[in-house]
Amino acid sequence: MPVATLADFTDADACPRLVVKVGSALLVGEDGAPRRAWLKTLVAELAAAHGRGQQVIVVSSGAIALGARKLALGKGGRGSLADAQAAASVGQIALAGLWAELFAAHGIIAAQLLLTLDDLEERRRYLNATATLGRLLAAGAVPVVNENDSVATHEIRFGDNDRLAARVAQAAAASGLLLLSDVDGLYDRNPQRPGAQLLRLVRGVTSQVHAMADNGSGSGVGSGGMTSKLQAAEIAERAGIAMAIVGGKAEAPLAAALAEGTGTLFLPRRRDPARKAWLGGRLRLKGALVVDDGAARALTRGSSLLAAGIAEVEGAFSRGDAVAVKDRTGHLLAHGLAEYDAEECVRLQGTQSVEHGAILGYAPRSAVIHRDQLVVL
User: Fold this and answer.
1) Using one digit for the tens of pLDDT, what is the confidence trace for 220-275?
2) With left for phi above 0 and alpha for psi between -120 and 50, is residue 116 left, alpha or beta?
3) CA 13/CA 4 separation, integer angstroms
4) 374-376 sheet: strands from edge to edge
5) H-helix or E-strand containing 24?
6) Helix, strand or coil for residue 333?
7) In the chain, which end has fewer C-beta atoms inside a 10 angstrom radius, N or C?
8) Residue-wise over 321-339: b if at least 16 C-beta within 10 A, else e?
9) How do 17-22 and 264-267 pair as beta strands?
C-alpha cells in the first residue's frame, strides 16, 4: 500500500525506501558550526527507520556553510563562485565526517555521493548514479548525497537541494521524499498574513498551487524557497513518489511533525515509466518547439510531434537533446528528445512528411519527437 498519510513515511511497508532532505538552515547554526545536538536526534530517528527495515537516503546541505567557517570567508562562503567552491571543498569533508560519525554510533555505515546537475540529466550517468545508490542500499549503508559545489558552476547547478532530492528520489525509485524545512509546509498565502491556512494535502501541483508560493508562502530565504519545493513535488509526482514538507526545527523533527500533525503531503497523480519520469523531471533543456493548437491537442492523445505542427523553433540543439514543447502562449506542454537538430527543425517546420526527403536530401525520420521519447506534463 503506497504512502497516503504523513504517518506512512515511518511505515516500512508503505515506504520501504525513504529520502530525507536536510537544509543548511537546520543543520548549521548562525555561528557556522553544525547543530550537533539537533542532528544527533535526527540521526537517531533515521537509524530507527533503518532498524525497522526502511532503506534511507539523506540529501544534506551545509558543506559551503561549514567550509566558510573554517576558511573564515565572509557572506557564508557565497561572496563569489570561487569562494563557494573553495568553501564546499573544505566543508564536504567536515559534512561527510559528521554524518559518518553520527551514523556509526548506531552501527550504520554512511556513504558520500556528490552529484552535479549533469550526473542526473545525462542518461548514462543517471543510470550509473541509480546503480550506485541501489548497491549501497542493498549493502545496508545510508547514502548521504549533496551537490558537488566544489566543481559545479552556475550553468551546471541544481541551485537548491530540494530539486536535487527529488531527482535522487526518482533515481533511487524511492517511495517517499521528506523535505525538512524551516517552515511547517505550504500555506495558501504568506503565513504572516491574517487568515493564512496550512494546506495539509495537495493532490497534484497546479498553477493555482504555484501561485501560493509566488505570493510568498515560503520562507523566501536562500535558494530553497517554497517555489523550489513545489518544483521538487512536480518531479516526485511524475515518478509516483509521495512528498511531504514538514518543519524541522524541533529536536527529533520527524516525531515532532507527526505528533503535531503539521506539514503538507503531496500525493502523486501519475506514475510514469522510469525513462519518461527521468525525461519529465529534467531541469535543463537545450531549446524549445512551439506548436500550433492542433499539434497541442494531438500530444495529449499520445501522438508523436510532427513537423507540420511546429510553428517556431527556439534555441540551438542537436539530435538527441532534450527540448521543451510549448503552445503559442508559452505554456509548457511536454519534454522530449529531438530527432533533428534545431537547423533541420527550422527547415521542416510547418511541412508535411512527404516533403521531408526533398527538403533534407536524405530519408526522413518518422517524427520530430517520437511519442516514445516524449512525456506530456
Assistant:
1) 323 458 999 999 999 999 999 999 999 999 999 999 998 888 899 999 988 899 99
2) beta
3) 12
4) 310-315, 287-291, 322-326, 332-337, 374-376
5) helix 24-27
6) strand
7) N
8) bbbbbbbeeeeebbbbbbb
9) unpaired
**What residue segments make up the domains of the chain, in order of their start?**
6-278, 285-376
Query: Where do we find the cell 573544505?
Result: 90
Provide the CATH topology of domain 6-278. Answer: Carbamate kinase (3.40.1160)
Fold of 285-376: 2.30.130
C-beta of residue 179 within 8 angstroms of C-beta of residue 19? no
> In CATH terms, are 6-278 and 285-376 the same topology?
no
Copy the grid coordinates of residue 119: 550526473
The pTM of this model reads 0.91
DSSP string, 165-205: HHHHHHHTT-SEEEEEESS-S-BSS-TTSTT--B--EEES-
- Apex CA 44: angle with CA 42 and CA 46, to 5°? 70
71 beta partners: none
Count of Cβ atoms closer than 10 Å to residue 24 Cβ: 19
Give the residue carrying C-alpha cell 554510533.
105
